UniProtKB/TrEMBL annotation:
Organism this protein belongs to: Natronobacterium haloterrestre
Taxonomy, superkingdom: Archaea
Family named by the database record: Belongs to the trehalose phosphatase family.
Gene Ontology biological process terms, A to Z: trehalose biosynthetic process
UniProt-recorded name of the protein: Trehalose 6-phosphate phosphatase
Pfam families (UniProt xref): Trehalose_PPase
Function: Removes the phosphate from trehalose 6-phosphate to produce free trehalose.
Gene Ontology MF terms in the entry: metal ion binding; trehalose-phosphatase activity
Length: 296
């Protein structure tokens, strides 16, 4: 059994968020600020048949913008999409992680995992070969995301999906050997550099820049979000979007509309639970009475 499967077997069914709200309140109380990390597809944006058509709901777009403007909240988007792609789809956050954390934009610069950068040509070669290998499969779509690739099978007839998986595996094994690996998601096959890195690692890097008493929150819907759930727990809040499948998350909501409700709650009642900043120094004179500069 792999480490990932061992972790999965230990997971339980997350409790609906409304039943976990007292615990969520407890986690936020005493914190100085919130670090809010959000997946995109299936979380802010409904899952659609054509990935290029994905867009956040208007309510989620507005909620993210409002939270990003709040001085006590740091917001980040952590997505499997390419960095450039996801940045075009949602405005506001100061931090973006693309390609499951292999690309990270923060502090005015972009960092790319060094191994992933070296294997972009390998990803390109695999994508070009898959275009031919899957040409006869109806609606199979290959997306080259630079440092990773995705084979989309959502619109592929169910009987043909095992064929897509078999041919994809054969191409990756032949061209890349152990340098690339395949993982599965919601109606997708992800082709990635074989490095021990994922969304959880990206969230850990982002959290390292936050104050020690910041409260980390992660909201996501897919298998690739599980490492991020584990990163923010037990000190933070992990919310899974979707059905009642086992997960490392501590609570769940049903869909992107429920995500809106949670984000709006964070922006009102949630931030009111934070410790107010120390502003006592504002009322103190900048200089002792005898040392104040005088203007003549």
């Amino acid at each position: 059994m792999t480490a990932r499967s061992e972790a999965a077997s230990a997971d339980s069914v997350p409790v609906p968020l409304e039943r976990r709200l007292p615990r969520v309140r407890e986690r936020i109380e005493g914190g100085s600020r919130l670090l809010l990390c959000l997946d995109f597809d299936g979380t802010l944006a409904p899952i659609v048949d054509e990935p290029d058509e994905a867009a956040p709901t208007e309510d989620n777009r507005a909620a993210v913008a409002a939270l990003s403007d709040h001085p006590a909240i740091d917001t980040a988007i952590v997505s499997g999409r390419a960095l450039a792609d996801v940045r075009e789809r949602i405005d506001g956050p100061s931090i973006y992680a693309g390609n499951h954390g292999l690309e990270l934009a923060r502090k005015g610069s972009v960092a790319v995992h060094p191994v992933a950068r070296k294997r972009t040509r390998l990803i390109e070669a695999v994508c070009e070969t898959l275009e031919t290998a899957l040409d006869t499969v109806p609606n199979a779509r290959i997306e080259n995301k630079g440092v990773t690739a995705t084979v989309h099978v959502r619109s592929v007839p169910s009987a043909a999906r095992p064929v897509v998986a078999e041919r994809t595996r054969a191409v990756v094994d032949r061209l890349a050997g152990d340098d690339l690996e395949i993982s599965t998601g919601k109606r997708i096959l992800e082709i990635e550099p074989a490095v021990p890195w994922g969304k959880g690692n990206a969230v850990a890097l982002i959290a390292a820049d936050a104050p020690a008493d910041a409260v980390p929150i992660y909201v996501g819907d897919d298998v690739t979000d599980e490492s991020a759930f584990r990163t923010v727990l037990p000190e933070g809040i992990a919310v899974r979007v979707g059905d009642s499948a086992p997960s490392a998350a501590s609570c769940r909501v049903e869909d992107p509309d429920d995500v809106t409700t949670f984000l709006q709650w964070l922006g009102t009642a949630g931030i009111d639970l934070l410790d107010p900043p120390d502003t006592s120094w504002i009322d103190e004179p900048a200089f002792p009475d005898d040392d104040r500069p005088h203007v003549s």
